[in-house]
Design goal:
The chain has helices spanning 6-12, 43-62, 77-87, 104-121, 130-147, 169-177, 206-265, 267-285, 291-300, 311-318, and strands at residues 16-19, 31-35, 38-41, 67-70, 91-92, 159-162, 182-186, 197-200. It is α/β, with parallel strands linked by helices. It folds into two domains: 6-101 and 156-230, Rossmann fold (3-Layer(aba) Sandwich), CATH 3.40.50.10490; 266-318, no CATH class. Strands 5-4-6-7-8 form a five-stranded parallel β-sheet, sandwiched between helices. A three-stranded antiparallel β-sheet has the order 1-3-2, with no helix packed on it.
Length: 319
């Protein structure tokens, strides 16, 4: 399980909030006090909440899920891109396009266009004129800035990680509309409501932003590495398990032959065993039967059921 420490948070300046006059009342429970007109965030509350986020990110990555890193403010663009690429996760660091998640069909068409242009760019647009090639290059660069981080995503992300919830309102609205879990850095001037995994902390400092992104990326990489080693070890465990299974089947076939020989010698014993087998079959198949079939079966067994009885009531009476 991935964990961070109070020391790392202090070194990154996570505890520095906004000026006290710009605070949001719903962040009061996360505020330790005020120093020089600036709110100080209580890291004793932030630390366990951030460790919960790291644990959640690890589980998501281990299950093969995707975490979309979102940070389009100037202090976050480079860090978000670097850490997302390092851990193999999608990212948006330039500008959030409207409908990036809620209208994914249109975005998917733009991603296809980007990939087509990249394919043509590998040959330096040799089959086009200079003017046309220049226009295509500019179009490709524009699409790369907006969609380059999600071109290999292949669909809606499983989790969205947002650096500044006040700056990324459109991304948050779309995630909430699609019921996608949200991880958000919430400073003292924002409302934490609507964020599934709140991380009370500084959302302006480059060091603090780098700390959040780096720790989550590390948690993802550790989970992927652990999942990879388990996947490699799994086939070695399964291979020897197949041999004893074959022996059990042989033993079963031997035991099945013995009763058949007995039934030939004593037909009377077969007649007695047949109803018991029928009853067993009837009990196991009750849930698979329709209501009308249950009524017929009950009458055949001499059990009274009413037409107004539910299927569950009929099964109770029969059993």
């Amino acid at each position: 399980m991935a964990k961070t420490s109070m020391k790392k948070m202090l070194e990154a300046g996570v505890h520095f909030g906004h000026r006290s006059r710009f605070w949001h009342p719903k962040m009061e429970r996360y505020i330790y006090g005020t120093r020089n007109g600036v709110h100080i965030i209580n890291l004793e509350k932030t630390l366990p909440m951030f460790n919960d986020v790291l644990n959640y990110a690890s589980k998501t990555a281990a299950a093969g899920g995707s975490i979309l890193f979102v940070g389009t403010k100037r202090a976050a663009t480079d860090i978000i891109k670097e850490e997302a690429i390092r851990c193999g996760m999608p990212y948006v660091n330039h500008r959030w396009l409207g409908g990036m998640m809620t209208n994914y069909k249109t975005i998917k068409a733009s991603i296809k266009r980007l990939k087509d242009l990249e394919f043509l760019a590998e040959e330096n647009f040799t089959q086009f004129g200079k003017k046309e090639a220049l226009m295509m290059t500019r179009e490709m660069e524009k699409l790369e800035r907006s969609l380059g981080g999600i071109k290999d995503l292949g669909g809606i992300p499983d989790v969205v990680f947002v650096i500044d919830i006040g700056h990324e309102k459109n991304a948050i609205k779309e995630a909430q509309k699609l019921h996608i879990p949200l991880i958000g850095i919430v400073d003292t001037n924002h409302n934490p409501e609507g964020i599934d995994y709140v991380i009370p902390g500084n959302d302006d400092s480059i060091r603090a932003i780098g700390f959040y992104a780096r720790e989550i990326a590390n948690a993802v990489l550790e989970a992927k590495a652990a999942a990879g080693t388990q996947a490699k070890a799994a086939p070695a465990k399964k291979a020897p398990a197949k041999k004893p299974a074959a022996k059990k089947e042989e033993a079963k076939t031997e035991t099945v032959v013995a009763p058949k020989e007995e039934t030939k010698e004593a037909p009377a014993a077969v007649v007695e065993k047949a109803p018991a087998e029928a009853e067993k079959l009837g009990k196991t198949a009750l849930n698979a039967m329709k209501k009308a079939e249950l009524a017929d079966y009950a009458s055949a067994q001499g059990i009274e059921v009413n037409a107004s009885d539910t299927k569950a009531q009929m099964i109770e009476k029969i059993t």
